[in-house]
Structure formats: C-alpha cells, structure tokens
Design a protein that fits this description.
The complex is a heterodimer.
Chain A: H1 2-30, H2 33-62, H3 69-74, H4 81-86, H5 92-117, H6 122-141, H7 168-182, H8 184-196, H9 202-233, H10 243-268, H11 272-295, H12 310-330, H13 332-335, H14 347-379, E1 383-385, H15 387-407, H16 418-441, H17 447-476, H18 481-491, H19 493-518, E2 520-527, E3 531-534, E4 537-548, E5 553-562, E6 569-571, E7 574-577, E8 585-587, E9 589-591, E10 596-605, E11 611-620, H20 622-640
Antiparallel strand pairs in A: 2-11, 3-4, 4-5, 5-6, 5-7, 7-8, 9-10, 10-11
Helix pairs in contact in A: 1-2, 1-6, 2-5, 2-6, 5-6, 5-7, 6-8, 7-9, 8-9, 8-11, 9-10, 9-20, 10-11, 10-14, 11-12, 14-15, 15-17, 16-17, 17-18, 17-19, 18-19, 19-20
Chain B: H1 3-29, E1 30-34, H2 36-41, E2 48-55, E3 61-63, E4 68-74, E5 79-85, E6 97-104, E7 110-117, H3 133-142
Parallel strand pairs in B: 1-2, 5-7
Antiparallel strand pairs in B: 2-4, 2-6, 3-4, 4-5, 6-7
Classes of the chains: A alpha+beta, B alpha+beta.
C-alpha cells in the first residue's frame, strides 16, 4: 500500500498548494481575511502532507519495502542503517521530496513569523511560496514520481551508489537544499513588494535574516561538498569547477552580492531596482542549478540520470523570469533611485564594485558552464573549457573582492576625504606590503602567491584596525577590555558578525592559495617493505589484507608514515568492490594537519600483496578551508542575532 | 569630467576587461573533442585535444614499476596510439570506452595527461566533466550501454 498512500498524499498536497496560492493572492487583492486564513490552513496542510510523504519514504527505506521502485533501486539488504536514511535523497526523486519538504517548512515558518509583522506584503509572500511549492509537488506527481510501485516486488534491491555511503551525504544535500530553498523567501518578498508597489525598505528589512540564513546554508553546503569531494573521491582536490558545483556557486555569488547591496538601499535609498533584480536572479539561478543537475543537459559528477524533467524546470524558470520582468516593468517609476552616488571614492562605490565583481564572476561561471552547449549550437564544434578557464577568469575578480573586503567596511560614506583614507588605510597598506616582502625574502617566488598573501594581510589588518579603534574608544569611556570587546560584538553584532565572516573568507582564501601553490604529489609502485619519500615524509608499504564487509568486499593496504617523528601515522587506503558496480571504489586515507595533510590513495595492487601502486599527496593548508567554514558559522550566528544597538 | 561620465567610463573599462578575460580564458583553455578518425585526418602537434574512443583489446600494456601506460584508441575507422604515465583509473579497461586529454606528439602518438574512463553510474568521477557529445560517441562506439 505504501506507494499508493504516498502518491495520494503528494496529489492532495499539490491540489492544496495550488488552492492556497490562489486563495492567498485573491485574499491579497480583495482584502478578505477569510481567504487568507484559508490559505494559511492550506499551507499547514501541505506541510503535514509532505512531512507524511517524507516520513513514509524514510519508513520504506528502513523496512526495505522493495514494493517501492525508488527504494528497490537505491538500497539493498546490505545497506547499513545510517545510509538507508541518506539514500532517501540519494537520487533524483527523493531529492525533490526533501526539497519540497524544506520549502513547506520555510512556508510554515513564514506564516508563523510574518502574518502579524508584514500585513501588506504577507498575503503575496504566501501566494508565491505556495505557488513555488506547488511546482515542486507537480514535479513529484508528474516527471519524478517517488512512490511508484515495483512489479514484481524483488527479493533484494539494487543498492545505493557507494560514493554516497558517507556521513557527508547527510549534511551536504541538506545544507545545500536549505540554502537553495531559503532564497525562495526573499524572492517571495520581492515579488510581494512589486505586487503591492511597496518597493521601499520594508521587504529588505524583513528579509535580511532570511537571506543570511539561506546564504549561510548555501555556503556550508558548498564547503561540505568540498570536504566530501576531498575525502571520498580520492583525487585530492575539493573543487573541480564541475557544472553542478558551478550551479550551486552562481546563486552563492549573486546572493552574496545581494547581502551587500541591501545595505546601500537601507542607508542611502539607492539600488532598489538592482536589489529586486539580484534577488530574482539568485532565485532563478537556484532553479537553473536544479535544472542543470536534473536534466542531464551537461554531464557532471552530480548528474542525475533522468532527462524528461528538464522541460518542467525550464518552463518554470521561464515563468519566474518573465513574471518578474513584467512586474518590474509595471513598477518601473517606483523603482527609480532616490539617492545618488556622490563620489567614486566612497563606501557606496566600494559596495557597488563588490556587486559588479560578484555578478561578473557569476556571469563567467555561467558562461564557462554552458560554453559547450553554446559552441555546439553556434559552431557545431565539441569544445569545452575546464578548470583552467574558471581559475584564470575568476582569479583577478576574487583578488579584487578581497581588496574591497578591506576597503568597504572602513571607507567613508558619500565621499572619502584624503584624511579618511590615510587614517584608515595607510597602516594596513604598509603592513600588507611588508608581509608580502617578508614572504618574498622567505623564499616564495610566485608573484601571484605574494599578491594574494599581501592582499589578505591588508584586509585582515583593516578589520583589526577598525576593531581596535572601537575598543579603544570604549576603554576611554572607562570600560574594562573584556567588557569593551564583548560589548562591541553584541551591540554592533551585525557589523562585527560581518567582520568575522570576512575573516573566515580570508582564511579560506589562504587555504586555497596554499593548496594551489604548495601541494606536491607523487605516484609510485612499492614492493612490500619498500619506502617512498615526498616533502620530508617517508611512506612504507607494510602489506595488504582483504575482508568482506556487509555490502562489499574490501582490499586494505597498510602504510606507515614517518617524518622527523618515526611512525607518525599508519594509513589504510583501500579499494572497495561492490557487487552492483562495474569498477572498484577507492577509499582514501589521510592524516589531516593544520598546515599539511598526508593524503594516500591505493591505485593498483598485486593480488599476492607483493606490490602496490599508490598516489601520495602532501596537501598544504587545505585544513584552513574547513577552519574558515567554522569561522563563517560563528560570524553568521553573531550577525543573525537581534540587533541591540538602540537599547545601548 | 562629470560624475556621470566617470561612472560610464568606469563601467565600460570593467566590461571590456571582463570581455578580454573571458576571451583569453577561452582561447587558452578550450579543449576540442575529437574521434580517432578526426584526429588522424588533421593532427596538429601541441594542440590540446580530448580524444574519445574504445580501448582496442590486446593493445593495453601497463608496467607498475615505471607507471608507463600504453594503449590504442579506436572509433572503428582509425586508431591512435596513446601513452600516459600513471595508474589506469578503476573503470578503465580493454573493450571499454575512454576519453583521454592531452596533446598530439610529432613522433606519432598521443600523450595523455588525463584519462577519463566511462562511468555509467548516476554519479561520476570528478574529472568526468565531458561535453555533451561524449555520451553519444561512446554510445555509438560501444553499441551496448552497460
């Protein structure tokens, strides 16, 4: 019965969402409260039904209910308990269920939080949220049915893709989808602002935290994706400019731009049109990402197999973009800016440049991702651009962004005087140059590394200078040091939360720089007992063992790693043979360190264990990327806390 | 110079710089996808290619000690000898489809820097970011999809 009950729940949820969306819109136009109340009930109903559908799916996985086709294709009796839960969203259909559930959850939270404090915008927000939700439910009911009956019911399932048997797989998609779906809320508010003609600051003020939440989860999802790639895929990297990574990165870039540009509107009443456009763009890019991942248009790591679903997403994307454009055109006069830029050297223009570079970066990523399609369509050639393109094009943009990260928070509004510039930036510039020079003397030859390092130090110093100055001011008022610093963080939590996030980004930038500039690798074949050396590390091959696991057969190598300390670590890279797979899956082993990771992959081996071919990497500063993620988390939490400025 | 003019000039400079960056990026990193027959017809030494074909049975030789890998790729019309230094990827094997990235050498072989083996799973290896033509090619080459 499970497939039928599940499919029924989805169908009812779809009808309810459609009804709710129409009722909310009608309530908004007529002002009838009863319609709005009924739409709210619909939102609650949809949430309960989607929760039931998700629960049912989880239950089907836990009980090995192979009468559900989706369960039978994505698990088997050997799949461990934990991975049967992650298998729920391991493939196309289930991922849409998770997506819809999160969207329903966000919709419910919007109802709870905003039905009182945003009376004019709220009905339209609800209408849009339920409308988007209806689309995803339509996908679940139509091209990606998760509750399809399997006839005859097999005795065992096919099994989960082994690459997904990883703890990262619970957090990576969950975070990413929370980020993707989260941007629906600011988008809904933007549409509501256009629909009501209230394109002022209200919608911006109401969505600031929503945007931050979505942005944060998207950032975290990207970072966890990098971590998964690093420790599961075994190629030693964390980012491959894969089309689907790009698909998640583009809304991150435009979302980041939006986070910054709203400050200009709040402060100077400028950029109204730009802000609305950015949020529409960001939301559209999340849809485009879903389209890329699920349509099979572009081959990629994450590509799901089915293709028929692509047309649905493309159609919905077109609907979203055209409707938004029509609304913008309708409210054109109200969107004209009131404030004007006074000077090129001002905080406004630093923020504006930040936006230009972020959007430019998103554009280049978009261009590179769809380039193969363009080239084939225009010239009939099969050409692609890979990682070198993205690195080359984005590098100057990212370096400029790091620089602006130092300039933006300190430079004066409206017009910066020479005195203002000298006071804020003279010391950081000198320190940045000195740091780069020191690095040069220490033996770093690459101009790029020196530039990156110098800029990072410059920006970190500006943040430090600002914080120190503010602390001093409080000390002069007679506060103690701890109280002064704590008070600053809490009273100006939005500003300093942003600073902390910036520091996290700088730490990540150094990690990326270090791993590119200083990582080394070697590939070699070792006889048992033989040792290879790389960058001060000695790795000895001690032998091979084989064992049967619950759902696969595993060949495990034992390698002893030493540097100046003998027997620093014993690593066990492996090869896992799954019956449902055509080829073995490599299991990486590593020893993580703050400055260096020893990263070992078992490439090939002799069956008698006499020799093994390994790929050994010494990856530098990669851990900084994960540390940066933690710092970003702290900063976001600080920035999201209620503002206390007025109370102080 | 008026303020408006300054901003317009600034915007134009940024747009031009961006266009140049993209242009330079494409010309430097574009990789052309060819079949063995296409490469045979007009080989350009030193140019970056992505070559797709089937690994000819009996042609594969790998020495673990030196990591030297040699094999021949075929599309049924022409064959290309390929050399590579490194461990063959897990999915790589005789009679299977493979795409290799590298350059044509004047001495008459293809020096591969990267081997992308065909993977039919839902999720693919990270470097398997081939262009759309790849699937069709392998399909025609292999006849039957696993």
């Amino acid at each position: 019965m499970t497939p039928e009950i599940g499919a029924g729940a989805v169908m009812v949820a779809l009808l309810l969402a459609l009804y709710g969306s129409v009722a909310a819109a009608a309530g908004a136009s007529t002002g009838r409260t009863s319609l709005l109340l009924s739409a709210q009930h619909a939102a609650l109903g949809v949430f309960l039904l989607v929760t039931a559908a998700l629960g049912l799916l989880v239950y089907a996985f836990l009980t090995f209910d192979f009468s559900v086709r989706y369960v039978a294709t994505n698990t088997n009796l050997g799949t461990p308990f934990y991975y049967r839960i992650t298998a729920v969203w391991g493939a196309l259909e289930g991922s849409i269920v998770l997506w819809a559930w999160m969207l329903a959850l966000y919709t419910l939270i919007v109802v709870v939080r905003h039905r009182q404090n945003a009376r004019e915008l709220y009905p339209w927000v609800l209408a849009v949220m339920l409308g988007v939700l209806a689309f995803f439910l339509l996908v679940m009911a139509g091209p990606a049915p998760v509750f399809q009956r399997m006839i005859p019911v097999p005795n065992d399932g096919r099994g989960l893709n082994p690459l997904l048997e990883d703890t990262g797989m619970i957090t990576h998609p969950v975070c990413l989808y929370l980020g993707f779906t989260g941007f629906t809320v600011p988008f809904a508010f933007a549409v509501a602002a256009l629909a009501t003609g209230r394109v002022g600051d209200t919608w911006i003020a109401l969505t600031r935290r929503w945007t931050l939440v979505a942005w944060y989860f998207l950032s975290l999802g990207l970072l966890i994706g990098g971590w998964w790639s690093y420790h599961v895929l075994g190629w030693g990297g964390y980012w491959a400019w894969d089309p689907v990574e790009n698909a998640a990165f583009m809304p991150w870039l435009t979302g980041t731009a939006f986070l910054h540009s709203v400050m200009i509107q709040e402060r100077r009443r400028m950029l109204k049109l730009w802000n609305i456009s950015l949020v529409v763009l960001t939301f559209s890019l999340t849809l485009f990402g879903t389209f890329l991942t699920r349509s099979g248009v572009i081959a990629s790591v994450h590509a799901f197999t089915q293709g028929s679903i692509g047309a649905f997403f493309l159609g919905f994307l077109a609907l979203v973009v055209l409707t938004s454009l029509a609304l913008i055109a309708w409210r054109w006069d109200a969107l004209r800016a009131q404030g004007e830029l006074d000077s090129v050297v001002s905080r406004e223009s630093a923020f504006l440049l930040n936006n230009v570079f972020l959007v430019a970066s998103a554009f280049t990523v978009f261009f590179g991702t769809v380039f193969p399609l363009l080239a084939e369509a225009v010239r009939g050639e099969k050409v692609s651009v890979g990682a070198p393109f993205f690195n080359l094009v984005n590098l100057p943009l990212f370096l400029a962004l790091i620089f602006l990260m130092g300039v933006g928070p300190l430079i004066a509004w409206r017009r910066a005087s020479l005195e203002n510039l000298r006071r804020n930036f003279l010391a950081p510039v000198v320190i940045g140059i000195a740091a780069a020079a020191l690095f040069r003397v220490a033996g770093t030859a690459s101009a790029l590394t020196l530039l990156t390092f110098g800029l990072t130090v410059f920006t970190a110093t500006t943040l430090g200078v600002d914080f120190t100055r503010a602390t001093r001011a409080r000390l002069r008022m007679g506060e103690r040091l701890g109280a002064a610093m704590g008070g600053l963080l809490i009273r100006h939590n939005r500003r300093y939360g942003g600073f902390v996030v910036h520091i996290g980004i700088l730490v990540i930038a150094l990690g990326v720089m270090g791993s590119h500039a200083w990582s080394v690798q070697t590939e070699t074949t070792l006889k048992r007992g033989e040792t290879t050396e790389l960058a001060g590390y000695k790795v000895r091959f001690d032998g091979l063992a084989a064992r049967q696991e619950s759902n696969h057969f595993k060949v495990v190598g034992t390698f002893t790693v030493s540097n100046h300390r003998p027997n620093l670590a014993v690593l066990h890279p492996s090869k896992k043979f799954y019956p449902q797979e055509q080829a073995p899956i490599a299991g990486v082993d590593y020893r993580l360190g703050l400055t260096e990771d020893v990263y070992l992959v078992l490439g090939d081996f002799a069956r008698d264990g006499s020799h093994a071919t390994i790929k050994l990497q010494i990856n530098r500063l990669v851990s900084w990327i994960w540390v940066g993620g933690v710092i970003i988390t702290l900063g976001t939490v600080l920035a999201i806390l209620p503002e206390r400025r007025r109370a102080g | 110079m008026s303020r408006r003019l300054k901003f317009v000039t600034g915007g134009a400079v940024i747009a031009l710089a961006l266009a140049y960056l993209i242009y330079a990026g494409v010309t430097q990193s574009a990789v052309y996808f060819v079949t063995p027959a296409e490469l045979r017809a007009a080989p350009v030494a030193g140019k970056s290619y992505r070559l797709g074909g089937m690994v000819v049975p009996g042609s594969l030789a790998w020495e673990p000690q030196t990591l030297n890998l040699r094999f021949t790729l075929s599309d049924g019309q022409a064959t290309i000898p390929v050399r590579h230094r490194g461990t063959p990827p897990d999915l790589f094997g005789e009679g299977r489809g493979a795409v290799v990235e590298g350059r044509w050498q004047q001495e008459g072989h293809f020096q591969a820097t990267l081997i992308l083996a065909k993977h039919s799973e839902e999720y693919k290896a990270p470097h398997d970011t081939s262009q759309p033509g790849y699937k069709e090619l392998i399909k025609t080459l292999k006849g039957s999809q696993p």
